[in-house]
Amino acid sequence: MTHVVTEACIRCKYTDCVDVCPVDCFREGPNFLTIDPDECIDCAVCIPECPVSAIYAEEDLPKDQLHMTEINAELAKLPTWKSITKRKAALPDAEEWKDKTGKLDELIR
How far apart, in Å, are the Cα atoms of 70 and each of 4, 20, 88? Predict the structure, then answer.
């Protein structure tokens, strides 16, 4: 199993999770983080670090977020989505977006 970043991360991109990842499985896009399923060791240390509760174990994904498993895997393989290993500032308008739902249309690939 792996962990999955859900739509809650879109347009927020808090990076608290990357500081605790022991295997550097996070990849960074313009307005979203993804987890590379081939690198994730299922340790779960990232889950409590996310301030918007955007990370779930694959088997615990809410039904309305199941599509994010495939999206995480796809984006993690894009050459433009590079590994991120150190915390950065969240996006400038993250506070405005952190409680919004249904943000998939906002995802920049």
Answer: 9, 24, 25
Domain ranges in the chain are 3-88
pLDDT along the chain (109 residues), means of 10: 95 97 97 97 97 97 98 98 97 96 96
CA distance 107 to 109: 6
Instruction: Tally Cβ neighbours within 10 Å of residue 63.
Output: 5
Region of residue 27 (left: phi > 0; alpha: psi -120 to 50; beta: else) = beta
Q: What is the CATH number of domain 3-88?
A: 3.30.70.20
CA distance 81 to 28: 5
